[in-house]
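Q: Structure tokens for this one, please.
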Amino acid sequence: MEPVTRLDHNGELPLLDFPYIIRWRDDRCTRCGKCTAVCPTKAIVPSVMAQRLVSSESPIPLPNTVRKVTQIVRQVTDIDHFCTGCGTCSLVCPNMAIMPEYNPNAKLLFHKNRGGIPYKRGGRRNDPQTSTLDKLKFTRISMLTDPALDAGRHEFHIRTLMGRNLPAENLPLSLQNGRLVVDSSSFIPPVREIFPIRIGGMSIGALSPPMWEGMAMGVTYLNEVENIPVVMGSGEGGVPPRLLKSRFIKYFIPQIASGYFGWDEIIHALPDMIEDPAAIEIKYGQGAKPGDGGLLMANKVLKLIAKIRGVPMHVDLASPPTHQTKYSIEEAVAKMIQSVSMAWGFRVPVYPKISGTKTALAVLNNLARNPYAAALSIDGEDGATGAAYNVSLDKMGHPIASNLRDCYLELVKQGKQNELPIFAAGGVGKDGHLAANAASLILLGASGVDIGKYIMQAAAECYGDEKNRCNLCNTGKCPRGIATQDPRLYRRLDADRVAQRVVDIFKSAETELKKIFAPMGRSTQLPIGMSDGLGVSDKAIADRLSISYVC
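A: Here is the predicted structure, written as tokens:
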């Protein structure tokens, strides 16, 4: 049976069924055609409208019929070309004659699955509710007993440790002749001091060359000029060979996942690498689609991406959810973490990234027993993605706050809360409150947080939101030029501007973190797990997270 591409004329969908309705003003439009030319989904087309006008202009009212044909911009009612509300049309219109308007009464859910193929989209889950993180308040304000710090003038050191931190009694140190001596025969886990907000793994392939290059330049500037040690994940898909062999690789976290895309290039570059990477991340899952493999769609696999990943052009690149080398937690630790650590001579922290899930505790307990596991990264349900089924994005996953809290309290029971760091992700900065969300997760037990969608929205002015706006990340038709490999689209994005905005974002976040931590009397040590500094007016959330109920 042929897939249904559109309905018959007598059963066409009304515009009220679509998520966005195009508001076009005839009196302002000059019919230049710019809006219809740039629409990524072809939701608007140039058309004509025929009118039959009856007029009477003589003293004796004899009607006169005139047929008038007018050029218009028409919104199509084809479900395969519905408007996603990206607003590109309004950006190019010289007269503000056109604009998409959100339709809260849309029934897209009933129409979007065509030909028996479930609907895929990019972006993040469409959840209009306020997230748990945005409901939390910082309620511990030091006054007389523990004077607060001056956030504007006091010296702060907003840093965290990425890597396993051995307790003092396990450090291979001894006192000999009044000097502290390190036992070189003992294993000392590698540790990096970094800024507590990291850029999460977004692959070169999922993102356009200007976007990835802009973020890389911004991260380098932050480290070398601003002295803010921000690190950035590569995502699955490899790292450009020129970067691998440069001194800048020390600011990046190459990711290995079940597809092993790009790892031939990394292994071949090992003898020529002049610096070690900041860490190695082994991806087992993504918060937006837990239990499912990643997917880079064929229309993004162009020449540059195919070369870096070592694959043919124009083929779908699906990462299996479980690779043969990673059948169980025990096998994963034995094979993956230890073997990858060996590749860099045990000089680089190696840790897994998992989806937020009820099984996170099982992974944590295994890692806690393994001396080579450097950390655990948990990606909650609000984690962004380049391509996933709609049902995965909106209906699968675990919120990060409670998942993180459970894991941290488990480490407290084992007395290892300062030994194995946990990095949290998924919805950090979802509503724009980056520093506040990061600080909340730190007080709940995270050593640091990862951000992804926030960087796209803030550094590259992404058009998407959590009301199903745009969400074309997976199609390669990103109208902003962020998530596409089409040169005609990504030339719209200025890498230098992205780099400048990345720098602005992290400098601002550092200032806000100082403002939050100063009243708590913290300046040189992060308040990891200091949950008595948090309160919430929702009793259920307070009980679940074991924090103060305030109202």
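A few notes: The longest strand covers residues 44-55. The CA atoms of residues 241 and 268 lie 9 Å apart.
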